[in-house]
Design brief:
15% helix, single chain, DNA-binding, alpha+beta, 181 residues
Length: 181
DNA sequence: CATATGATGGACT
DNA sequence: GTCCATCATATGG
């Protein structure tokens, strides 16, 4: 199975977010000495200064990180959680895709939620600003058709865009969900 | 150093 | 649906 290359991420964040559904996230856990694999089932797209929900607006470090090359890993800490993102678009632009939920393939754990999945995998800010490829990368896999992709507003965001920027695989039980969603 | 701030999660009505 | 504990940053003095 081939790794997704940089070109895959050098596109609009919403396109990347949609196509990332069904792909396989691979995380080489040095701590567990194990290669963890999980299917991406839920994502969100974030943009630049024009996106009121993006932390690129108010956070200098995140803005700088999102303007780095496509395929850069961005780890955002909020509340007591780490959220895993991948920088998208071209260098100089500020956009990223947030990985919100995973379906575990070769391990056990509740990965239905951006904070949960990082906790289960053991991801923290050590990965911040690293490039997708060694510790963590994404493999090409099944393609989710447009009809199978559900869309909604982004979660927990105070000021969201009119556009629906959250994408998930319809009917997948690993998609994060509760009364709040 | 002090303080404000949540891309959350979980408990509760 | 609402409420709130919690804590690693970012930022300003």
């Amino acid at each position: 199975m081939k790794k997704l290359n940089k070109e895959f991420f050098e596109r609009n964040a919403d396109d990347v977010a949609k196509e990332l559904l069904g792909k396989v996230l691979v995380f080489n856990s040095g701590l567990l000495k194990k290669r963890l694999r999980a299917k991406i089932v839920e994502t969100e797209a974030y943009f630049d200064e024009n996106d009121p929900a993006s932390r690129a607006v108010s956070n200098g470090d995140l803005r700088a990180t999102m303007k780095m090359g496509a395929g850069t890993i961005l780890v955002y800490g909020v509340h007591n959680n780490w959220l895993l993102n991948v920088v998208t678009g071209f260098e100089g632009g500020a956009s990223a895709v947030l990985i919100r939920a995973l379906e575990p393939i070769n391990f056990e754990g509740n990965c239905s939620g951006p904070g949960r999945l990082t906790k289960v995998l053991g991801i923290d800010k050590l990965l911040h600003k690293k490039i997708l490829g060694v510790e963590i990368f994404i493999e090409d896999s099944e393609i989710i058709s447009e009809e199978e992709i559900g869309k909604s507003h982004r979660i927990g965001v105070t000021k969201d865009l009119k556009e629906k920027m959250r994408f998930y695989i319809k009917g997948n039980k690993f998609v994060s969900g509760s009364s709040r969603y």
